[in-house]
Amino acid sequence: MSSGYPTSVGPGLLMFGETNVSAADSQIVSDYVRHFLHQHTMQLGQPATVKVAANLIRMLSYNNKNMLQTGLIVGGWDKYEGGKIYGIPLGGTIVEQPFAIGGSGSTYLYGFFDQEWKDRMTKDEAEKLVVKAVSLAIARDGASGGVVRTVIINSEGVTRNFYPGDTLPLWHEELPPQNSLLDILSSSSSPDPMVS
After folding, report:
1. Residue of 77, 88, 79 lying closest to 16 (CA atoms)
2. N or C: which end of the chain has fewer CB within 10 A?
């Protein structure tokens, strides 16, 4: 999960950059990775594995750690190891994880994921968890946007889903979506404003 948009870097491989830090850095890394993975595919006659892609991104991040200001998440599916997710924070460390979180709203979600994450979730359970988590980040962090985009990567391919803000769960004291300020004022139980 990341605040960045997923960028395809190869068949069944997506990279998520933390756009709140540096969208330009995320984009240049994805351009290089896409180029190198295309060369890899041509030389070996088959697509790179998720691990190869993640290690390439790690190497680019580490070798340019004094110039890049972005953390990255690499996720994908390959025929050798199935689904994999790697977190590559600033500096170029690589960490294989069951899930990865990034972006400005992620600080609100670590405890939530510690409590809610379960191994062997179904595809639907995992997607519901992500939608719930991102809606929580949206409620707490003004830079997390107002919609949820999910990407499911498995042996069947890549499926993208979009959840508009008015379909997301509300948290605590959030106001339900309104069409205009007049809707908010008319639904309020406070007395009419004074007219002079």
Report:
1. 88
2. C
